Amino acid sequence: MKKSLVILFAAALGLAACNTEKKGPGGLLYKVHKSGGKDKIKEGDVVKLNITQKTEKDSLLGSTYDFEQAQVMPVGKKQFPGDLMDALTLVGEGDSVTFKINLDSMAFYSKQPKPDLFKNDKFVSLIVKVEKVFKKGPKEADSTFQKRASDFFQADYKADMDKKKTAEPAKIKAYIEDNNLKVQTSPSGLQYIITAPGTGAKPVDGDTVSVNYIGRFTKKGEDKKYKIFDTNVESAAKEAKMNQPGRPYTPVKMPVGSTVPGFTEALKLVGKGGKITAIIPSKLGYGEQGGGPIAPYSPLVFEIEVLDVIKPKAGAVAPATPVAPTAGHSANDGHNH
Predict the structure, then answer these.
(1) CA 43 to chain centre
(2) 301 CB contacts (<8 Å, ≥6 apart)?
(3) 18 three-class SS
(4) Is the pLDDT of residue 16 over 60?
(5) Is residue 10 over pLDDT 80?
(6) How far is CA 322 from CA 105, 134, 259, 260, 284, in A?
């Protein structure tokens, strides 16, 4: 019995030691939550990381988990003691760790003031999971290593994309069931719910619409909510704690036909004053390329309110063929749906 207690006590001490916050260079603090027991990362390695970024007060700033896309990058020279490049050399493949990067050190060495977002904070927290470390072999030429790393991560990326593509129908189904939605499905594959049909003629190509919208992912984020990736509705942006400096929260005007196909199709289903929720599969959205915060093969949900339908004036030139969308906003604020 005594021996068992000693073993348990020793195990508890080991766990406590693992969870102790340690000090690093440049005022860095870090805590290893799980160790993979592998060799430490070195400058020149190529790493694949999942990262969640938070403020000192634990407000979520962003996460690769939300976008289901780990970040691949070479480990370069540190810019200042205790920066991310420096911090990574303290861990290895399979490790899960929280780094607290010292913002005062960053400001001192960069000769730049702290961003307004962090003006009252001393640290920014990075919760890092080291998924893969690709190391250069002994006496391996740089060119050989770079090609080997490129080939590996290209194959790894393709495998990730194949999984996303296969998983997309299940994501849409889960979102519909989780929200108890009774959807209609168009021949194109767009699924939608019209909550208000609106009045008057429905928009057609060449018209301009004034809209409010909220764009969400179909996968819940770190906060267990469906993450809003873009909106012009101020109350929704505040609720989602979105950081959109300088963004005007006013109705957005866009030519019908200038957006991704699923968004355009949804606009055409309601009149002025109409409201529609559109569940857009990636083939009608950002496809296999993605764009901005939208990962490849991402189904999206847009809540759209058509505030006005503006017919073109007689003799007006039709809008040019739209370019491929690159993010979640409309053309007049620098982005496309």
Answers:
(1) 27
(2) 175, 215, 216, 217, 218, 226, 277, 278, 279, 280
(3) helix
(4) no
(5) no
(6) 46, 41, 7, 9, 15
| Confidence class for position 163, pLDDT limits 50, 70, 90 | very high
In whole angstroms, give the CA distance from residue 242 to residue 230.
9
Q: Check whether 100 has a pLDDT greater than 60.
A: yes
CA distance 27 to 101: 8
pLDDT band for position 19 (50/70/90)? Answer: low
Separation CA 48–CA 74 (nearest Å): 9
Beta strands in the chain (DSSP E): 22-23, 29-34, 46-55, 60-63, 71-74, 96-102, 123-134, 184-185, 191-196, 208-220, 226-231, 252-255, 275-280, 300-310
**Vertex 8, ends 6 and 12: CA angle to 5°?**
115
Tell me 324's DSSP state. P
Q: Which residues pair with 98 in a beta bridge?
A: 31, 127
pLDDT on residue 63: 87
User: Residue 291, SS3?
Assistant: strand
DSSP 24-44: -GGG-EEEEEE---PPBP-TT
For residue 304, give the nearest of 272, 258, 336, 257 by alpha carbon. 272
Average pLDDT of every residue of the chain:
87
Q: Are 256 and 267 in contact (CB under 8 A)?
A: yes
Measured at the alpha carbon of residue 325, what is the angle toward residues 321 and 331, in degrees to the nearest 5?
Answer: 70
Report how far apart, in Å, the C-alpha atoms of 22 and of each of 3, 29, 43, 99, 336 are.
Answer: 31, 6, 21, 10, 45
Structure token digits, residue 197: 């049909």
C-alpha 253/C-alpha 45 separation (Å) is: 47
Q: Give the pLDDT band (50/70/90) at residue 12.
A: very low
Q: What is the share, in percent, of the chain residues with pLDDT greater than 90?
A: 72
Query: Coil, strand or helix: which one is 277?
Result: strand
CA-wise closest residue to 130 among 62, 75, 59, 60: 75
* 248 HSE (CA, 13 A, CB side): 8
* Predicted pLDDT at 2: 43
Whether 335 shows a pLDDT value over 70: the answer reads no
